[in-house]
Write a structure and sequence with these properties.
By secondary structure, this protein is of the alpha/beta class. It is about 20% helix and about 25% strand. The strands form two sheets. Strands 6-5-4-3-2-1-14 form a seven-stranded mixed sheet. Strands 7-8-9-10-11-12-13 form a seven-stranded mixed sheet.
Length: about 300
């Protein structure tokens, strides 16, 4: 399994267009600090890749990843589809940038599909341009493609809905409080190795702990360093956990949970207020001592 990290930022990216916080100002002064919206590219088979989440940066992310470039025929692309962890705008707006394709393959849970079709009216907007081919995503590990050794399964982690879907009826009674936000379990059946990806993590349920314990790589939500960061930064009125993101540090933080795992562990989805955006921040030393990494845009992971 080969995985390309296409982006590692939370909503708005780093820098965010309308923000002059220290993280954004630092990224403008030091282009190496810049981060695009959190996303992965996963190789399902030779010449066939899936995006994990489709971000507003999708076009630039594809251009910066040679494996995703089209060719040798004029309109042949290695992109086979998109796997969604949730229905948030930062993870789905890029789907519209794929409208030049004949068809767009989308792997999603039932609530996410319902939100995109009913809340965003994605089908009405895009089907005049391209066919939408939906495939289910649930706890069952299914092959990512017919000829692929890779399987994908979902681990529900949160019932948090995107704001635009707050008033939507659930597509099914069983989906009312489940599978709105999931972690992805990607497994290579050839090697038996696996990666767990959770860019949004509002809780750490037992099922997620079991999945993390059995994974070889775990990449999780690093949106905020501390629970009160949204408050102390002056840009929010709720704590990190109230916004649906477990903090990295603190008694209920994720850093020590990750340090206890045997897997290689990394953070992604950094908010622009997160001190980890500064490579010289002392918080990096704290993580190094725990054996936990911060993922970087462009990173390649081979399992």
């Amino acid at each position: 399994m080969r995985v390309r990290v296409l982006g590692t930022a939370a909503g708005g990216g780093v820098p965010q267009w309308n923000c002059a916080c220290p993280g954004c100002s630092g990224a403008r002064a030091h282009p190496g600090w810049r981060r695009r919206h959190a996303s992965l590219a996963v190789q399902a088979a030779e010449g066939r890749w899936y995006l994990v989440n489709a971000t507003p940066d999708l076009g630039e992310q594809v251009e910066d990843c040679p494996e995703l470039h089209p060719g040798p025929q004029p309109r042949r692309t290695p992109l086979a589809g998109v796997i969604l962890t949730d229905a948030e705008l930062d993870h789905t707006l890029g789907i519209a940038r794929l409208r030049e394709a004949d068809a767009i393959g989308i792997v999603a849970t039932a609530p996410v599909r319902h939100a995109l079709l009913t809340g965003l009216h994605l089908g009405e907007v895009l089907t005049p341009y391209a066919r939408l081919d939906w495939r289910p995503l649930d706890s069952e590990d299914r092959p990512l493609a017919e000829d692929s050794p890779l399987t994908v399964g979902a681990v529900p982690v949160s019932a948090k809905r995107p704001r635009y879907a707050a008033g939507l009826d659930a597509p099914d009674a069983d989906d009312a409080d489940d599978a709105w936000v999931v972690a992805l379990r990607l497994t290579d059946r050839t090697t038996g190795r696996s990666l767990l990806y959770a860019p949004a993590l509002a809780a750490w349920p037992d099922a997620f702990q079991r999945a993390a314990e059995s994974a070889d790589h775990v990449i999780v939500d690093g949106t905020f360093w501390s629970d009160d960061e949204p408050l102390t930064s002056g840009f929010g009125s709720r704590t990190a956990t109230a916004m649906g993101h477990l903090p990295i540090d603190g008694p209920d933080g994720t850093a020590r949970r990750l340090a206890a795992l045997d897997a290689r562990t990394l953070y992604t989805h950094l908010n622009n207020t997160n001190p980890l955006n500064d490579p010289a921040a002392p918080q990096h030393t704290v993580l190094r001592e725990l054996g936990v990494e911060v993922a970087a845009d462009g990173m390649v992971i081979d399992l």
